[in-house]
Amino acid sequence: ENSEVCECGKKRGRIEARRTDAKSEKTPSIGRNTRSAARGEKGEQLFKWILSRRQFTSEAIDKVIEGWHSIWRRHRQRIDEFEEFWMKQGKSWDDLMTVKDPEVVISNFLAQQGRSKSSDANTNACRTAIGMLFRIQGFQEKEISGFALKQMMKKPQYATRKKRKEEPIYKLDILLRYIQGKFGYIEQLSEQEHMGCEISSIMAFATFRLTEIHRAKATKNEDCSWQLYISVQKGDDYDLSVTFRPVSNQQICPITWIASWFARRSTSDQTKPLWWRVS
Fold first, then answer.
1. Second-level CATH architecture of 40-159
2. How many CB atoms lie within 10 A of CB 216?
3. Rounded to 5 degrees, what angle do the CA atoms 167, 171, 176 make?
4. Which of 6, 55, 106, 162 has the maximal Cβ count within 10 Å?
């Protein structure tokens, strides 16, 4: 009987030990979340304090923060790192409002981050968050991001730059076969059908977006090639011209379709945008 009691006691002991281990395994994650929230607390307080000094109401401040959605957690943690750096310099929050050259402050902070072996991604995030901190004070971007800071940011930005991979155009053969099939009765096509085939032929031979082709203008050159003028409004705005020349298969050739489209236009419409005839 005593042996049975001992066995039961051992079993209970093992069960209680497992329960204790399970609790101890769960506890660190809670601690991590608490530390993560605490790490950005000073940063959020500083951000709100600066806006309040500019007479923003608490409701307006909350709306500003809501605009960043989930990314705000990252911003406030980086601002928290800056706040710690600033206070270690013997400065106060009030001193931050008297800064005349934010580029120097940000550069010195990032240099300190470099000494502490901060990752390139963290350096970029810090630059963004602290730049934002000075923008809400009223500084212009050109006052924040000067030549020296841009030079300093070249390495971390290059290291974290995403590499663009070639994206194959799927079903291109189906598209070209469709255009080729329509060529047999090109004169009978409606304006919408003709425009669709022409745009498709251009997109098949050039990497333009549909909106860019819609804004395009075209002129015919003396060697029977066609010049397409595109205004690219994505990223850095710029104008681009592309020359289309004849290909062996006239049925899918862009200049065949462009020439056919222009043949439908009156003389007075020749210099107008490419899709002028579309009602």
1. Orthogonal Bundle (1.10)
2. 19
3. 115
4. 106
